[in-house]
Amino acid sequence: MSLVTFILLAVAATANAATGVATFNNYDAQSGVACSGFSSTNSQGNGIYAAALGDLSPLWTGSECSGSIDSSNCNGSGGCIDCTGPSCSGEGQCGQCFQISCAGSLDGETSGACTGNTIIVKIIDACPATHPENYCKLAEFGGNVPANQCCEAAGVNAFDIATTAQSALSTFQYNLNINIEAVSC
Ligand SMILES: *[C@@H]1O[C@H](CO)[C@@H](O)[C@H](O)[C@H]1NC(C)=O
């Protein structure tokens, strides 16, 4: 293989690679999802896990979710009073699969480790920055969750992944830095 060919292949191989953060959600306990035609279950079949993509993520395609940030929807200690979420009808990544691996603890946990395993997640939901359940967690509204752990950080790929995938990725207890690659399902 020539050096030029090698470099072109290397560029192609990394073209789909990205980094981001993972939080975890129990889809089995949720009533619905933003992507029409998908069910709110942790397992999406064939060993694939459910995930929501934050609408401020660079990987998000289509229009962001509707809605706005309104402090009157927050209870002042991290929760929401009116917890109605916005419409995310423009979400372009619905049904897309991504290969995810752990790149470390996001919270600075000192006990635990990445497993080294990769998993496949399928985007079935959105994690909207304009959802009160997200923005009310920010310190400015009385919460204590960092912006990159509640889908509020612009420029960060935010994946809210099925809780059942947690132990496959790491032995950390909480949120993770992740490596991300778009793959076919
Ligand atoms: C605000 O909401 C959170 C989350 O639901 C709850 O834990 C907390 O007790 C609420 N605080 C007040 C002051 O209502």
From TrEMBL:
Domain of life: Eukaryota
Protein's name in the database: Uncharacterized protein
